[in-house]
Amino acid sequence: MNHTNRNFKLISETPSALAATVHDWLQQPGRRFGYLTARVCDGNTLAIQALLLDTHANGGVIITAPLADGEMEYPSITDGVPAAHWAERAIGDFFGLRALEHPRWKTLILHDGAWPSDLFPLSPMSHGHRESYEFMEVTGEGIHEIPVGPIHAGIIEPGHFRFSCAGEIITNLDIRLGYQHRGIEKRLTELPWQQTCYLAESASTDTAVGNALAHAAAMEQLLGLDLPPRAHALRTIALEFERLANHIGDIGALSGDIGYSAGAALFPPMRGAILALAQLLTGSRRQRYYIKPGGVVRDLDDDRRRSIKKELSDIETRLQELLPLVFENSSVIERMEGTGCITRELARDFGLVGPAGRASGSDYDARRYYPHGVYPEHAPKPAMRDTGDVLARAQVRTDEIQSSIRIVSELLDNLPDGPICIDCQEEALAPDDFGLGIVEAWRGELIHWVTTDGTGAISRYAMKDPSFNNWTGLAIAARGNLVTDFPLCNKSFNLSYSGNDL
Amino acid sequence: MGNPLFTIFKTGVITQRDMFPALSDDANGLPTVTVSPCPCNECGRCAKVCPAKAISVAGSAVTLDRGRCIGCNACVGVCSSGTLERDLSTQTAVATREELLLTSCPKPTTASMPTHLPFRRSMHIREVSTGDNASDLEVIASTNAIFDIARFGIHFVASPRFADALLVTGPVGRAMQEPLRRCYEAMAEPRIVIAVGTSAISGGLHSCGYAEANGVSSILPVFSFIPGDPPHPWSIIYGILMAMGRL
């Protein structure tokens, strides 16, 4: 290994000792579980890999546990590290490896019915059959089930929610996703690296900038590139525009689910105003195909820089008028306060990220620790609340709207001169190495983890959307709430289904 | 707290009155092919840089498949002859898959208008998303006060049982094929399908993988194709009005 990524140490471990090693390593302050996945090592053997983050060191470790030839099981780490529970199920789907003693072992993405039960798309060998998916069954007097989806009533992505209710109160929510699985991780290993950026950002197209930036960060480590400061600044503006547009849209959508029409009517045009600025910067409202490894594809001239600056200041003034209409309205507050609570302890144990994590007392914001754009040098103070309810998640977004406007304004005032891109199309990726893009996208920590083989080709491309952590948060938050408050809970998380399904 | 009603009055009418305005000059738009034999003698740079395999070059004929194009405009950047250029029009929807193939040496074809259906005055739409949430966001944007799709009698409804049209975004991978089919079958006839966005039309970058995410056409008959990754809200409104027979 070349160790282009020197802040991440590589450790080898046996599968049987993995659970204890991971658990022990995480006991120090500032350390978090990042992701758990598997990959094919030389030829036909598989290895489990844990990515653990040490925020205090701006780095972490990658623990690799190679499995013996033909070994298809390993002891689950979920018991000590609950945040790994979905990751182990995903490994089961894609590699056919079983996590022994997993508390709720079943499929996560590739469910029976839709997929052949012997398809393990990321594994080189075939092995056995996948078991069928069993919904968690709640029994007791008066308990009834409400199945919802995969197709929902609104304009929203597909997923199945199975509510077990006592009267109007939700006692358990089983979330079954995977309907939008498109095979992105596999396809990314089949393309020349120069073409991967387009597909990588399509993982969840509402997070195009976040995904493109995480991809670029990983690739630039593998290419050994240092970007010009202007490219970093322009990328940061795009990232913050994406956060602004979506957070503003979420405040409007929360108003809509509360039945507060004024908020639902007034915020979408504000989101549109941000999208217009995004188009000025990148050429498209959704900022598609703007960030590439090496930099960005178009420069910001002085005229457009000035118009963005002026428009943004108008938007800020307007928001100062609009936000109190929501946050000082007692009937709106009453619906949000105490609804969909998740405690600090559960948020920590399940590794919630982004606004959902920070609304439950976490101070984790990847902008403070991992390099992307102008971060971590110019990271904002994390926006935090500790009540963990819908209101807290909305308030965290409001704080972040304000900090993002400030970040963009400052960057526009102090935009460094110089080139916006380094041409790296002819370069080769470092062989037998890895690149890690860890980005604070608008939903939270987004990871692209790229591993190359001996020829410099991508042998494993693992993606972890922030939603992958947070779906469990939604299932926990919904418990004990009214079925009628579920849309509000759901909207307060506003998770990506496609980023989870890949 | 301010008065919400006062704020709404003060905001005034923000709905765009101009129908299908072209995108502003700072936008990428979708590339288009100018009608003249390409003088580059098969330089093929446009086809080489296209990440979506949307361009083919044969002699002096350059063909661009807008059903695969993701709008990155890399081709326009490398085209030195002006054969490929930016198109800022939002009137991009068509009624057949063939009309999405733009070529520099066109054969005589007639642009087909869709068969007349009884949706002229109003259309109720069930939206199904299958893996392209940016297109969903642009569909949602078409309902906001700026675009106000409801003024045309177009409404998004909660059940396929209420719907005249099924609007699909995303490439329809294996796990969404059966739910999508069932949704269509739940609709009363006459019913139509509208594909919104590159991935819904052809699967785009997702096509030809093990997930069989090759677009809506492989599952259901498509009545109107709205290209773009994602299409602009005005392009979406244009495509729906075209399907209604209102253009």
What do these coordinates show?
The complex is a heterodimer of chains A (502) and B (247). Chain A is of the alpha+beta class. In chain A, 38% of the residues lie in helices and 17% in strands. A four-stranded mixed β-sheet of chain A has the order 1-4-3-2. Chain A has a three-stranded antiparallel β-sheet with strand order 7-8-9. Chain B has 247 residues and is of the alpha/beta class. Chain B has two domains: 30-103, Alpha-Beta Plaits (2-Layer Sandwich), CATH 3.30.70.3270; 123-244, Rossmann fold (3-Layer(aba) Sandwich), CATH 3.40.50.12280. Helix content of chain B is 23%, strand content 17%. In chain B, the strands form three sheets. In chain B, strands 7-6-8-9-10 form a five-stranded parallel β-sheet, sandwiched between helices. The N and C termini of chain B lie far apart (45 Å). The interface between A and B is large, with 60 and 61 residues.
Brief rundown of the structure:
The complex is a heterodimer of chains A (502) and B (247). By secondary structure, chain A is α+β, with helices and mostly antiparallel strands.
Round the mean pLDDT of chain A to the nearest integer and report it: 94
CATH architectural group of the domain at 184-497 in chain A: Orthogonal Bundle
**Which structural class fits the helix and strand makeup of chain B?**
alpha/beta
How confident overall, as mean pLDDT of chain B? 91
H-E order of chain A? EHEEEEHEEEEHHHHHEEHHHHHEEEHHH
Low-confidence stretches of chain A: none
Biggest interface: A-B, 60 and 61 residues
What is the C-alpha radius of gyration of chain A, as a whole number of Å?
22 Å
How is the CATH topology of the largest domain in chain B named? Rossmann fold
Helicity level of chain B, as a percent range? 10-25%
Cα separation of the termini of chain B: 45 Å
Cross-sheet strand order for the largest sheet of chain A: 1-4-3-2
The main β sheet of chain A shows up as:
4 strands, mixed
Order of helical and strand elements of chain B: HEHEEHEEEHEEHEHEH
